[in-house]
Amino acid sequence: MSDDSLLMHRDPQTFQFAAGDSLGYLLYRSVARPGMQRDDLDLILQHARDSNRAAGLTGCLHHEDGLFFQWIEGPRFRLFRLIDLLSEDDRHLNFTVLDQGPLQQRLFGDWEMRFSDREAASLLDWLAVRRSQAGTGQDDAENITAFLRSMQG
Ligand SMILES: Cc1cc2nc3c(=O)[nH]c(=O)nc-3n(C[C@H](O)[C@H](O)[C@H](O)COP(=O)(O)O)c2cc1C
What we know:
This protein is an alpha+beta fold. The chain is built from 4 helices and 5 strands.
């Protein structure tokens, strides 16, 4: 099965989650609130992990140069609820959905919310290389997903 066959549908920005407990995913980018400290991040992660465990959500959060990139997967009605909360959360700005849709199987099933930052690996450097290789029109969502998956240890 190719990686792409796991991502059945691409339609950023329009939230098309149906009610029900079928699996879905969300990939978004946002800008961390200015002045965010490591303690603030730890609180976000701690709460996210507790609450994701209860909701059956898994995924990963990457923080680099004041940007967040997050992949969240799980029952679509839970995702739908979380999108509302995330888009209202003033600890980050410019909440931008990069990709979303139904999912056949989880990519991060072992993680309530894995965390990575530039010290682990640079997503922005990865994107710069991919963009220069592919020229314009390259799908960032696909590259970001590939980066996040490559970080699974
Ligand atoms: C960058 C970032 C990532 C977050 N990730 C999650 C998450 O994975 N799961 C979650 O439940 N809340 C996450 N949150 C928090 C939600 O935006 C929201 O504050 C929280 O779900 C509200 O929970 P409560 O209703 O229990 O207070 C995140 C917040 C930020 C700023």
